């Protein structure tokens, strides 16, 4: 196999996020749902001491992500709950795949159900969408990465789900890398002054990326020795020429309307990365159910 290609990515186990990061998010989501009076439906119908057993099952093909958040939701409502995971994040799912068996108070299970499923279905959807692109370009050296186009409050867990799906993460916020976009260039008066000001202001460990729309802009960015070039909304012929001009002097990143259908052609141009915003802001949920 050529060193410029890679086999289909194994969706290996990704290090779980610390509970300290997850619990405030799950707790706030439960509090939002409980409102001012708690689960008035369940509390009216289900006896306080009733016990129940329920099972999480997939209803469609996909990739599992978010199991720790689901577990936390049940444990916050019932500290004595028994959560028996049958699969781990990163597992490939098929309709009927049993994900977990959960035993505890019926009230706690029913009250936590929607919060647990909201996290699990959404993050599994993000992981599944990512895996669809990773699978589509498995015979190339290109990597899939997300963007900052995340849902408010969910950035850390959405980016975690991207990793579970076999992708990589772009910057987490405005403070961990410089990304000079078209509006920065316009206000600064050009690529050169924008890069010069950024380079003078940030530390030596901070990478500088410049978004370019044309090959002329690319040449300007390369002459300044930037670390990464974001090749925005270029057709495949232009991307291929851009990669030729870069010739390894910077990391190349393609973006703009990339889908599982168009991804192979984009990756074949030789770009190092493809940045895809819809993986986090518009990924469809994966259908997972909780059945008694």
From TrEMBL:
Entry's Gene Ontology BP terms: NAD+ biosynthetic process; quinolinate catabolic process
Pfam families: QRPTase_C, QRPTase_N
Keyword list, A-Z: Glycosyltransferase, Pyridine nucleotide biosynthesis, Transferase
Residue ranges annotated for the Quinolinate phosphoribosyl transferase N-terminal domain, each copy included: 39-124
Entry's Gene Ontology molecular function annotations: nicotinate-nucleotide diphosphorylase (carboxylating) activity
Catalytic reaction annotation: nicotinate beta-D-ribonucleotide + CO2 + diphosphate = quinolinate + 5-phospho-alpha-D-ribose 1-diphosphate + 2 H(+)
EC numbers on record: 2.4.2.19
GO cellular component, one term: cytoplasm
TM segment ranges: none
Domain Quinolinate phosphoribosyl transferase C-terminal: 126-291
Pathway participation: Cofactor biosynthesis; NAD(+) biosynthesis; nicotinate D-ribonucleotide from quinolinate: step 1/1
Family of the protein in this entry: Belongs to the NadC/ModD family.
Task of the protein: Involved in the catabolism of quinolinic acid (QA).
Subunit: Hexamer formed by 3 homodimers.
Protein name as catalogued: Probable nicotinate-nucleotide pyrophosphorylase [carboxylating]
Species annotation: Bordetella ansorpii
């Amino acid at each position: 196999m050529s060193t410029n290609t890679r086999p289909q990515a194994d969706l290996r186990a990704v290090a779980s996020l610390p509970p300290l990061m997850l619990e405030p998010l799950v707790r706030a989501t439960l509090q939002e749902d409980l409102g001012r009076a708690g689960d008035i439906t369940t509390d009216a119908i289900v006896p306080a001491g009733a016990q129940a057993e329920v099972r999480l099952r997939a209803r469609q093909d996909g990739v599992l992500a978010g199991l720790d958040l689901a577990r936390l939701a049940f444990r916050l409502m019932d500290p004595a709950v028994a959560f028996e995971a049958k699969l781990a994040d990163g597992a490939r799912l098929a309709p009927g795949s049993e994900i977990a068996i959960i035993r505890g108070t019926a009230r706690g299970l029913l009250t936590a159900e929607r919060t647990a499923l909201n996290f699990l279905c959404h993050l599994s959807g993000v992981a599944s969408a990512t895996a669809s692109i990773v699978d589509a370009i498995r015979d190339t050296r290109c990597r899939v990465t997300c963007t900052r186009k995340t849902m408010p409050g969910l950035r850390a867990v959405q980016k975690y789900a991207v990793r579970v799906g076999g992708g990589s993460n772009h910057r987490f916020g405005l403070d961990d890398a410089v990304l000079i976009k078209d509006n920065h260039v316009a206000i600064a008066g050009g690529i050169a002054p924008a890069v010069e000001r950024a380079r003078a202001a940030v530390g030596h460990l901070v990478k500088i990326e410049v978004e370019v729309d044309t090959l002329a802009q690319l040449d300007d960015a390369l002459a300044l020795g930037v670390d990464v070039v974001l090749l925005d909304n270029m057709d495949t012929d232009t991307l291929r020429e851009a990669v030729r001009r870069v010739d390894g002097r910077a990391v190349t990143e393609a973006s703009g309307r990339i889908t599982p259908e168009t991804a192979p052609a984009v990756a074949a141009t030789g770009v190092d990365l493809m940045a895809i915003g819809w993986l986090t802001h518009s990924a469809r949920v994966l259908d997972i159910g909780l059945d008694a």
